[in-house]
Amino acid sequence: MEFKTVAESETTITELMIPSYANFGGKVHGGILLSLMDKVAYVVGSLHSGGYCVTVAVENVEFLSPVEVGELVSLKASVNYVGKTTMLVGIRVESMNPKTRIVKHTNSSYFTMAAKNEANQLTEVPGLILENQTEVRRFCEGKLIKTFSKQKRELLKSDMEDVSFEEMKASIIDEKCQLSL
Ligand SMILES: CC(C)(COP(=O)(O)OP(=O)(O)OC[C@H]1O[C@@H](n2cnc3c(N)ncnc32)[C@H](O)[C@@H]1OP(=O)(O)O)[C@@H](O)C(=O)NCCC(=O)NCCS
Fold first, then answer.
1. Beta strand 103-116 with 86-96: parallel, antiparallel or unpaired?
2. What φ, ψ does residue 149 adopt, rounded to 5°?
3. How much distance in Å is there from the Cα of 125 to the middle of ligand 1?
């Protein structure tokens, strides 16, 4: 089996936040950041797998502080964990005001990328060579994230499958909604 180091695919993308990226409040749209995160995850995934890959899932997107127009956004990404055909790419986003050089951690997330071959079929990815304690910790966290997200999907599916419409209505009686069917 082939193995690659984390460093072989580690990537940082830096982009200037221009006025057309702003929302009505003058801050950068969350969607712009998500698109940049998807790009960097693709770069890391294709470098590690050595080919084409697709985004399967996005975990834990939290916008911790707003990004301003004129700031430089850096997205640092690496493969944290690998399964058989998927890679969990960890992304840390920071923005820097070029005048003050103050750096803010704006968000972090995990993108699951699946490797595909030319026939668009899932294909096995190389294993990871872990070279320091941080990489071992991230690999363990990645394993947990994969397990929890699978459990969450199964729980949501099974929990709603056997719920009757009457039970659904009863469960939202105190919620902020009106039924108008
Ligand atoms: C995601 C996809 C690859 C799963 O295909 P599948 O045949 O159902 O796959 P399997 O159940 O055999 O799982 C294959 C791998 O995907 C992972 N996977 C499947 N669904 C997943 C999900 N919802 N979240 C995270 N990982 C998932 C599995 O854990 C498995 O990983 P592993 O091989 O590393 O252990 C397939 O649905 C797909 O190609 N989706 C479209 C992705 C795409 O086009 N993205 C671009 C969006 S524009």
1. antiparallel
2. -70, -30
3. 13
pLDDT band at 124 (very low <50, low <70, confident <90, very high): very high
Structural contact between residues 55 and 47, judged by C-beta atoms closer than 8 angstroms: no
Number of independent structural domains in the chain = 1
- Cα-to-centroid distance, 113 and ligand 1 (Å): 8
Task: Tell which wins on pLDDT, 17 or 61.
Answer: 17
- Can you give the CATH number for the domain in which 135 is found? 3.10.129.10
- Phi-psi group of 164: left, alpha or beta (phi > 0 → left; psi -120 to 50 → alpha; rest → beta): beta
Q: Which domain holds residue 95?
A: 3-171
The answer to whether position 178 is within a domain reads: no
The pLDDT of residue 163: 87
Q: In sequence order, which residues have a C-beta less than 8 Å from that of residue 52 and are 6 or more positions away?
A: 46, 115, 116, 117, 118
Residues with CB under 6 Å of ligand 1 are 54-57, 83-86, 112, 114, 122, 149, 153
**9: Cα separation from own chain's centroid:** 16
- Global pTM value: 0.93
